[in-house]
Write a structure and sequence with these properties.
By secondary structure, this protein is mostly beta strands. Helix content is about 10%, strand content about 30%. The protein has a five-stranded antiparallel β-sheet with strand order 1-2-3-9-4, sandwiched between helices. Strands 6-5-7-8 form a four-stranded antiparallel β-sheet, with helices on one face. The chain has a three-stranded antiparallel β-sheet with strand order 10-11-12, with no helix packed on it. This is C-type lectin domain-containing protein.
Length: about 260
């Protein structure tokens, strides 16, 4: 009874202009839609309202959602991302961090091998069950716009883009980057979940300048003298002199 009274005190409820009911709670705005849809249909409708199916980050939010749902089962914004053991790899559709869980005893159990979506369990508790995503249930949307100037806004990732090449010339590496600015965190909202850096790839801004280099020395050329002392040279982009031996002790000239 105490929890219900607290929730009533801090929850402001008024009719929505569309189907469903608007609920404001802790700086966020929600719409409870009573029309039953599949999980993907419910998420698509929430996105069309500029939001997502609701994510839960605390016991207070879990209790509030169960109160709003009037103890019925409603879709929440989590799905299992991989064909893995039932308790692993769940994520929120709004990309907030998976840091809080409130599963019912024995859940998630992946009954029938195809229960990949999350709903409240219904009844007087605020715990969760995994269900077949094709089931039709009412659902709770969490909107980006809370209707006031001081909305609690959770951060969202920007699109991936490639960072600068780490080499000014020649082969280098660049890293895929994103920032928690779409939107930025404000008024106590949650930061983005995951890494701001991603894949890497090779890059080259421009080829590096190539300095000249010496070749190996060539073979010795012919001696400048046919006899006696002369010189010979070899080439390595420049000339290098060397004294060559006499071919014979004396040069003779015959007249």
């Amino acid at each position: 009874m105490y929890i219900i009274l607290v929730i009533i005190a801090i929850s402001f409820i008024k009719p929505s202009q569309s189907q469903g009911t608007i609920h404001d709670f802790n700086g966020k705005r929600y719409i409870l839609e009573n029309a039953a849809l599949t999980w993907s249909g419910a998420e698509a409708d929430c996105v069309s309202r500029r939001g997502h199916l609701a994510s839960i980050q605390s016991d207070a939010e879990a209790n509030f959602f169960n109160f709003v749902a009037s103890n019925r089962q409603i879709w929440l914004g989590a799905t299992k991302t991989l064909n893995s053991p039932p308790s692993d790899d769940w994520k929120w559709s709004d990309d907030t961090c998976w840091s809080y869980t409130n599963w019912n005893v024995g859940e998630p159990n992946n009954g029938g091998g195809n229960e990949d979506c999350m709903a409240t369990a219904g009844g007087s508790t605020s715990v969760w069950n995994d269900l077949n995503c094709a089931a039709s249930l009412p659902y709770l949307c969490e909107l980006d716009d809370c209707g006031t100037a001081n909305c609690q806004i959770d951060g969202g990732w920007s699109s991936w883009s490639w960072g600068a090449c780490d080499a000014p010339c020649g082969p280098g590496t660049q890293i895929e980057e994103r920032s928690c600015t779409n939107p930025s965190v404000s008024n106590g909202g949650l930061s983005c979940c995951g890494s701001a850096t991603g894949n890497t790839q090779s890059c080259e801004v421009v080829p590096c300048p190539v300095n000249g280099g010496w070749t190996a020395w060539g073979t010795w050329g012919a001696c400048t003298a046919t006899c006696g002392t002369g010189s010979q040279r070899t080439v390595k982009n420049l000339y290098k002199s060397n004294t060559c031996p006499r071919r014979r002790p004396l040069c003779w000239r015959y007249i």
